[in-house]
Amino acid sequence: MHRIARYSLGLLLCLCALARPHDGRAQAWPQGLGHAYVKLAHGRSTTAEQYTFDGRIKPYADHVDGAAFFDRSAYLYMEYGVREHLTVVGMLPFKYLRVLDAAFAYETGGVGSAMAGVRLGLKPLLGWSAPRQALALNLMLTLPTGYTRNLAPAIGAGQVDAQALLAWGLSLYPLPGYAQLGAGYRHRTGLYALSRATPCQPGRDLHCVRDVRPDYADEWLLSAEVGTGIGRWALLQVLGQAVLSVQPPDAASSFSANNPIPERQRYVKTGAGLSLYPIPALGLSLQAFLTPYGRNTIRSVDWFIGLEIIQR
Amino acid sequence: MPAASNRRQFLRRTGHLLTGLSLMPLAGCEFNHVAPRISGLDVPFLTPVNRPPAQGGFFVQHGGQAGIPGWEMPDLAPEAWSLTIDGLVRTPLTLSLDDLAALPARTVVKTMRCIIDSNEFPGLIGTALWRGVPLRSFLDRAGIDLERTRRLRIYGADGFTNNIRVEEVYRAFPADAFEPLLVTHMNGIPLTREHGRPVRLLLYDGYGYKNVKWLERIEATAEDTTFGTYQEIIGYVDDGRIRVSAKATNPVFNETLPAGPTRISGFAVSGAAPILRVEIAIDEGPFEEARLIPLDEILEAEPDLRSAYQFETAGREAFPLPGVWVPWEYRWEATPGSHQIRVRATDASGARQPDEDDDPFDGFNPVVRIPVQVRGA
Questions:
Q1: Is A36-311 CATH 2.40.160.40?
Q2: Staple A296 to which of A10, A50, A249, B113, CB 3.0 to 4.6 Å?
Q3: How distant, in Å, are the alpha carbons of A199, A227, A277, A284 from that of A233?
């Protein structure tokens, strides 16, 4: 059990379920050699409610009318095909978080945890030639960029994570669409060397929480995606993703003011996206997500607006 | 342009971008700020039951809410309520409100403080007049086995649990304190649902989690071990006795003040002994004594406080009381610039608020430090 930092009036100062855009697009398909995809997105995540460890819905912060959690962040996402079946993938967020309690507003901004990894097309390795299907292994590292992990709120968990996600895709040709399923595993390494902590006295310093380096539970990752083209100029997507901690959320890992960084959380996000391509190399995208299921996490509505650059 | 050249160029640019962005925190990109949404104020001595905390009302905290799966706030009908006393007793009892009403009640004053109340404002703390009857009467009636009983396990209807040592009931209490009570009223009205209707336990020196709400069972046990929802899930200190601490409510953290004569105020409380002194230091200056507000001044605003049982047994001169907050004030000639106000309390047992304490669940709060900005004239 971890004794967690300062308590603060029903305030949830930090979270791990920090919103970020749907990881990649069509993760079953590696980019072609020399092809690139870059997306600059702005995310807006807002909530007045949280899911407790046992699934009850309660106010995010007591005695605050309306929304009490605001995530206004920017993300730079990139894919580049360095080999015919090997794509490098990276994501860098600039996080801005603001949370409220009855008496104070807490805000933190900075470069959050970057993600870096590769997407490996498996069909050549497996000798699989099904023309309308795709299979890729996505290996990613989450890397803190030197931020302070125990600020209130924190812009990331402060530790290195490693994840593997296997994505299977199906082209619906001759229909102009695709479907994709993904399943993976995120290992929370417990390595905190890439973040730092500021000295903090719980009960006195309101800008920070005690640096406890929680023992986060590993997580299962699931994703589903269906997309259809509308002519050559638009793509409509239905998206779903789930993050499920291997160990069940319980009171000791509760997403509460006592334990502002939940060590175990589960959530499902469902949403839709629309991308417009006025020219083939340039896209404008809009995604929206709801959180219909959660344990130890925020019950947020997440919006992302993005600018896509496609190099073929 | 050939693909290889494209690739090199893309990778080079991407590398530069990532390197630059990754160094942003070191370049001072990271920022953090805590801004008050309210101004400092003096809280009333008796905390209103039905007023928002930011206006000085009670902040209600339910221990089971964060620890018990499927927790729901009980809504117990007083006429149907019962309390079971069992375990190491000769005759298990089931009590009703009529049984409590048959005994002479006493009205006591007590500060209800959550163990993790901190520098936050308005905070998890409040003071009320509570009316109830001694628990000991019913333990005696049940024939508690004092030879074997070590602890009383306390159960709330919401599933929340705690314990008290049996000697916390069967001991000589100082005149300025009171023995554990089963209380039914708060500030002159029946307990509201949020405060444990119809009956909660009340200990003069205990943090909030020792004063179990929606009380439904007390079990006498020979087990001399930690028992309680908060102790087991979070690791709160088991004895639950309020440690000495002071708190400033005016100004609040990071508040901006005008220059000139400034009143700093707040309160201090200790469960072990009455507050002896509160001291203030500005920046790195020496600690100077704040003025503890005398009881007569408090009674002018809170005449109901005269009915407190502790004043019958110990006299008004006994104020400050253990387990009851005492307001304080300090006059400061604020000069423009950034300042830090430090506050600490000492109780009559000699216990003083520690300079440092990084465990929020041990009951101690370190010396308060409140940064403020003072505007120029």
A1: yes
A2: A249
A3: 53, 13, 5, 10
